[in-house]
């Protein structure tokens, strides 16, 4: 009898404790995430409808400590654009107040970006039994240098490492040259660069993925075998090592390289505005503090100069140029620097259309495609336009996943899908280019 009573009392006490506990937990959660202001850095998706709203959002993005994710520069914010803006916690209140005052609708795209960043940089050896492969994780610059070496050592018959120059901070720029074991006279070549923009982490991840896939499936997969037998493939896994390093150590949102400017305290040039293609006209900036700063003169940056020099000295063999960026899911071709159509516009259009169709069919994912200036924005000084004008008439820029759900902070679990679909597009285009550039006997 007594014990039963005691048990009942204890039970009610337990219930009460549980109740109090839940209430406290909820209050804590409310305080932590907050309904109006978060204690986290956020990414906002802002729907700009009118010209006046465009002016206001442009001002917010340039006057407050924020980072514009999309479009790349405030000048591309017009009526009818969706803007993705990274806002540090300390500015969230001010920014959202301003948006509300001007009746600009917005939603939170990402809350707690700190957690996502942590997820992306988690120590790889944390769980040795994890089923996730090396290629389904992001890697630090040191890791990537180590990987380049190891890959070359493990495949001495198919891989050569070429030093094409060094970065502003004197880091080496290594290119992997992949070749099939078949010797053919007058071998054609293709070029792929990744990591022009530091924060686009999926891009170097793709280069690593591509190299690994090519080496593993040579003589197993017909497409890869045909590609490597017909073409040497030059792969530059990280074109902007200084910037990439900086995104791992200091600022995950960094885009440019890390060169010091003579005229200002701002750091970095946009390497994809530094090439000699209508250099520094509309769509680029001559102000060193801007994200799309074009640099002091064309190829003023050692990274751009190294790539340009290499391609100039290989321009007769290189038939296909490909530059990997993110995000937005687009397959682009020249021009970006002008609204003019290139002479083989229809041919290039067909190639990206077919590639996008395959991605849709096999991965149920939509990629936009077309000439850059019309598909994304007018922008001069890009590597693809420059390569095209050099004579590489199959020249492309891929913008990989996603469409803005995670943007630059694409979680590692998405790497394999993003890379597989890009690989499908690459194979589709490369095999067509191999047919089209068959040497005449
Ligand atoms: C820009 C240019 Cl200038 C080009 N030639 N091709 C593609 C783009 C888009 C990328 C950029 O540099 O802004 C997207 Se991250
Ligand atoms: Zn980019
Ligand atoms: Zn981009």
From TrEMBL:
Stretch forming the signal peptide: none
Peptidase M14 domain residues: 137-433
UniProt key word Protease: yes
Key words, A-Z: Carboxypeptidase, Disulfide bond, Hydrolase, Metal-binding, Metalloprotease, Protease, Signal, Zinc
Listed cofactors: Zn(2+)
GO biological process, one term: proteolysis
GO molecular function: metallocarboxypeptidase activity; zinc ion binding
Source organism superkingdom: Eukaryota
Pfam families attached to this UniProt entry: Peptidase_M14 (PF00246), Propep_M14 (PF02244)
Residues annotated as catalytic: 399
Matches recorded under Gene3D superfamilies: Metallocarboxypeptidase-like, Zn peptidases
Gene Ontology cellular-component annotations: extracellular space
Family that this chain belongs to: Belongs to the peptidase M14 family.
PANTHER family referenced in this protein's UniProt entry, alphabetically: CARBOXYPEPTIDASE B2, PROTEASE FAMILY M14 CARBOXYPEPTIDASE A,B
Protein's name according to its UniProt entry: Carboxypeptidase B2 (plasma)
Species whose genome carries this gene: Hucho hucho (huchen)
Higher taxonomy: Eukaryota, Metazoa, Chordata, Craniata, Vertebrata
């Amino acid at each position: 009898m007594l014990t039963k009573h005691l048990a009942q009392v204890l039970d009610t006490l337990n219930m009460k404790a549980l109740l109090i506990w839940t209430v406290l937990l909820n209050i804590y959660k409310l305080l932590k995430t907050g309904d109006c202001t978060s204690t986290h850095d956020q990414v906002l998706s802002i729907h700009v409808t009118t010209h006046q709203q465009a002016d206001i959002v442009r001002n917010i993005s340039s006057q407050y400590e924020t980072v514009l994710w999309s479009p790349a520069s405030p000048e591309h914010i017009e009526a009818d654009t969706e803007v993705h803006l990274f806002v540090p916690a300390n500015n969230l209140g001010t920014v959202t107040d301003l948006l509300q005052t001007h009746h600009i609708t917005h939603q939170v795209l990402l809350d707690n970006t700190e957690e996502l960043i942590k997820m992306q940089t988690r120590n790889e050896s944390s769980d040795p039994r994890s089923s996730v492969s090396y290629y389904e994780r992001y890697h630090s610059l040191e890791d990537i240098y180590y990987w380049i070496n190891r890959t070359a050592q493990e495949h001495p018959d198919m891989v050569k490492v070429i030093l094409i120059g060094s970065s502003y901070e004197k880091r080496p720029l290594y290119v992997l040259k992949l070749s099939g074991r078949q010797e053919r006279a007058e071998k054609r070549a293709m070029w792929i660069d990744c990591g022009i923009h530091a924060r686009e982490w999926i891009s170097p991840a793709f280069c690593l993925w591509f190299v690994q896939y090519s080496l593993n499936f040579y003589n197993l997969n017909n497409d890869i075998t045909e590609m490597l037998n017909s073409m040497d493939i030059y792969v530059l896994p990280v074109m902007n090592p200084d910037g990439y390093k900086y995104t791992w150590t200091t600022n995950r949102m960094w885009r440019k390289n890390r060169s010091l400017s003579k005229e200002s305290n701002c750091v970095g040039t946009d390497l994809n505005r530094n090439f000699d293609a209508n250099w520094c006209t509309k769509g680029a900036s001559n102000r060193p503090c801007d994200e799309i700063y074009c640099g002091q003169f064309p190829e003023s940056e050692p990274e751009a100069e190294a790539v340009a020099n290499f391609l100039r000295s290989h321009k007769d063999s290189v038939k296909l140029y490909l530059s990997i960026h993110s995000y937005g899911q687009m397959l682009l071709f020249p021009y970006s620097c002008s609204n003019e159509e290139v002479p083989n516009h229809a041919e290039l259009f067909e190639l990206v259309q077919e590639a996008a169709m395959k991605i849709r069919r096999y991965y149920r994912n939509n990629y936009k495609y077309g000439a850059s200036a019309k598909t994304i924005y007018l922008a001069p000084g890009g590597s693809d336009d420059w390569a095209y004008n050099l004579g590489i008439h199959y020249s492309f820029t891929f913008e990989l996943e996603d469409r803005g759900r995670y943007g630059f902070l694409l979680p590692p679990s998405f790497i394999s899908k993003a890379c597989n679909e890009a690989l499908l597009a690459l194979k589709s285009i490369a095999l067509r280019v191999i047919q089209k550039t068959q040497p005449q006997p």
